[in-house]
Design brief:
alpha/beta; 19% helix; Metallo-beta-lactamase, Chain A; six-stranded mixed sheet; single chain; 263 residues
Length: 263
């Protein structure tokens, strides 16, 4: 049995601590107030400060960056943190843009985090599609991450990344048993009243959870930004109406407070 400590810092940003490793997902540490251009005439404003500043974090061994080109997943302060991290794992296009220690992974490609005295963590990039069909040339590449190490009893830790529910995502539970899922939600639409979604709604998140059957589901990427179309109440409502096992799997983490989950 392996205990993992997870701290939800805000938006998609979490600190994952296990076996001496400190992993940071999608670093966003700018203060509230700034507007970010997402391209193709879209933008959004950050509404809340992060629960921690980079200076309040322990040394980071690796950053798991689902994509580098949207400010709600990598903002200015998050980008400034990257050189101090031991490794950055991201998309192949993102690694080319970032350079340095960045390792680029296509979907289903694998890299390993290794260090003396620590368990080796196998990182598999999982498919993600950040919008409707044929949107990739516009929105760019995104990946999720499946984390596997010796001693996991119930399955992997899976970070879905910013994605809609589609066939590629459904293949992940076919390949891996999932114990803990960091589920990116938000129901993002551009324009905000338009019909096209760019991340999962809470209802689609529940549908994915019914396929995955994870023991623990931690929702992230649903608060703190103006373009998120669904907030905590929407997430709670969707899970309250879900089957019992899915409803029980929901683990909402207080922003900024570490919590322990078993893998």
């Amino acid at each position: 049995m392996t205990d993992v400590r997870v701290t939800h810092i805000g938006g998609p940003t979490t600190l994952i601590e296990v076996g001496g490793w400190r992993l940071l997902t999608d670093p966003t540490f700018d203060p509230a107030g700034r507007r970010y251009d997402f391209g193709w005439g879209t933008s959004s404003r950050k509404l809340t400060d992060p629960a921690r500043t980079p200076g309040e974090l322990p040394p980071i061994d690796a950053v798991l960056l689902t994509h580098d080109h949207h400010g709600d997943n990598l903002d200015g302060a998050g980008r400034a943190l990257l050189p101090s991290a031991g490794t950055v794992v991201t998309t192949t296009a993102g690694a080319r843009r970032l350079g340095g220690t960045a390792r680029g992974l296509a979907p289903w490609a694998v890299t390993r985090l290794e260090a003396p005295g620590r368990p080796t963590i196998e990182v598999t990039a999982t498919p993600a599609r950040h919008g409707p069909p044929l949107s990739r040339p516009v929105v760019g590449d995104v990946v999720g991450f499946a984390l596997r190490w010796a001693g996991q009893r119930h399955g992997i830790v899976w970070i879905t990344g910013d994605t809609v529910l589609y066939g590629g995502l459904r293949r992940v539970p076919e390949r891996f048993p999932v114990s803990v899922m960091l589920l990116h939600l938000g129901g993002v639409r551009f324009p905000v009243t338009g019909p096209l979604r760019y991340t999962m709604t809470a209802r689609k998140g529940v549908e994915l959870c019914r396929l995955v059957r994870a023991r623990t589901v931690v929702p992230v990427h649903y608060e703190g930004w103006a373009h998120f179309g669904q907030d905590r109440d929407a997430v709670d409502g969707a899970f309250a109406a879900a089957p019992d096992d899915v409803r029980r799997s929901l683990r909402r983490l207080p922003i900024g407070a570490p919590a322990t989950v078993t893998v």
